[in-house]
From TrEMBL:
<keyword id="KW-0732">Signal</keyword>
<dbReference type="InterPro" id="IPR029058">
    <property type="entry name" value="AB_hydrolase_fold"/>
</dbReference>
<protein>
    <recommendedName>
        <fullName>Lipase domain-containing protein</fullName>
    </recommendedName>
</protein>
<feature type="signal peptide">
    <location>
        <begin position="1"/>
        <end position="19"/>
    </location>
</feature>
Length: 84
């Protein structure tokens, strides 16, 4: 009896899934807002323009302005491009 109910349930699910066309759409690109800071001192020779940038990502509770102090400190101390 239990096997019969499983088969009925499975066949109903199979019929429903085959009768409905799948609506698959391509993902749409999203424009991202960011700020970038690059510290350059012409007198200094330790500017690292070849290094990968530091990228700060924030979650849903913050915004890019809340990272402003950290953004500047990292840019000055590492002499690398920092994006937030």
């Amino acid at each position: 009896m239990q096997l019969l109910s499983i088969l009925v349930c499975f066949s109903t699910f199979l019929q429903a899934s085959l009768s409905l066309p799948l609506l698959v759409s391509k993902p749409k690109p999203v424009d991202l807002e960011f700020s970038c800071m690059e510290v350059f001192d012409p007198k200094s020779k330790d500017f690292k323009h070849d290094d990968a940038p530091v990228i700060l990502l924030h979650g849903l509770t913050g915004n890019k302005e809340s990272w402003h102090g950290v953004f500047e400190i990292i840019a000055w101390s590492t002499k690398r491009k920092v994006s937030r």
